[in-house]
Write a structure and sequence with these properties.
This protein is mainly alpha-helical and 214 residues long. It is built from nine helices and no strands. Helix 5 crosses helix 6 and helix 5 packs antiparallel against helix 9.
């Protein structure tokens, strides 16, 4: 057997991830088999096991390929050395919506995560990973808001925990609804105004302020 070059191995791995993305999007996680992915890529099942131990690892790699670049941008917003955390966070939020609206890969993977993955207790590891990712995302948003408060960009009495939960729910809801029914509204055209609506609430809503003890 001829040993593959590093470039060939990378190309095969990417082909498998592309195929997994399309099949998971078409059939959902639970209904997809490794043989489905192999057939779609015109490769053997053994080729999958050369790169991934199982379907869980394949799924995680597919998600990571899309999420890592976004997470690095989000983490930059939470960096205490960032001089304009609120501005960076606004730019990131708009970019997120725009990328889902225009990039087919982003759209498919977010759709798989929000609509094609069944939280039914059968894949506990993946469910725990998603819960961990949710917690990390919420904590990162809190750090961004705390940094913005220090920089004088947000009110000192902002309830950062509640604001972070609201942010996560707001944008997840937008993506969930648009991916379910893209024709219901123009996500690309509305991306900036949708973000500005949230930031207006962040700056002015009395319900996002810490309660004063009597």
């Amino acid at each position: 057997m001829v040993r593959k070059t590093k470039e060939e191995a990378i190309a095969t791995r990417n082909l498998l991830l592309d195929s997994a993305e399309e099949i998971f999007f078409e059939k959902g996680y639970s209904q997809t088999t490794l043989m489905d992915v192999a057939n779609h890529a015109n490769l053997t099942r053994g080729a999958i096991y050369w790169h991934f131990k199982n379907k869980i690892e394949l799924f995680e790699a597919m998600v990571e390929r899309v999420h890592l670049p976004l997470e690095s941008l989000a983490e930059a917003c939470a960096d205490e050395n960032e001089a304009d955390p609120l501005g960076r966070f606004r730019e990131f939020s708009i970019l997120l919506l725009q990328k889902v609206a225009t990039d087919n890969r982003q759209r498919r993977v977010f759709s798989i995560m929000l609509h094609k993955f069944e939280f039914n207790g059968e894949v506990q590891h993946l469910e725990e990973r998603q819960q961990c990712a949710f917690t990390e995302c919420t904590d990162r948003i809190e750090r961004t808001f705390k940094n913005a408060i220090i920089k004088g960009q947000l009110p000192k009495d902002l309830d950062v925990r509640q604001a972070a939960i609201a942010k996560h729910a707001y944008f997840t809801g937008i993506l969930h609804n648009w991916l379910f029914f893209p024709k219901s509204f123009d996500l690309l055209a509305m991306a900036e105004s949708l973000v500005e609506n949230y930031f207006h609430m962040l700056l002015h809503s009395p319900h996002l302020r810490l309660k004063t003890k009597v």
